[in-house]
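Reading group handout, session on sequence-to-structure problems. Before we discuss, look at one worked example. The prompt was deliberately terse, the way you'd type it at a terminal:

> structure Pyrimidine/purine nucleoside phosphorylase

The input record follows.
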Amino acid sequence: MSENTSEFSNVSIVKAANVYFDGNVTSRTVKFADGSSKTLGIMLPGEYEFNTGAKELMEILSGDATIQLPGESSWQAVKGGESFEVAANSSFKIKANTVTDYCCSFIQ
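And the output record:
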């Protein structure tokens, strides 16, 4: 399975939505046969802070945002087609400037 694919095959999807920040961020969990999982989600414009358990790869599928990674004081621009990693057991801030479509992979 390539990270650059636009489609996943042979997966299970958890029906219940993950809803954060009063519904401004929502996602669905996708489970793979190898035990790994990802979430596919949408962020409405706004500023959010997320905590991580596992290391994460955040792919911005479409939209425009800025991020502040753990230990950084500056903000970085990210847009559709770009990605960033976040260390396990940390947190990051994101400002969605437009509706932002994302895929979050949990790296074990």
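Points for discussion. First: The chain has no helices and eleven strands. Second: The longest strand covers residues 25-32.
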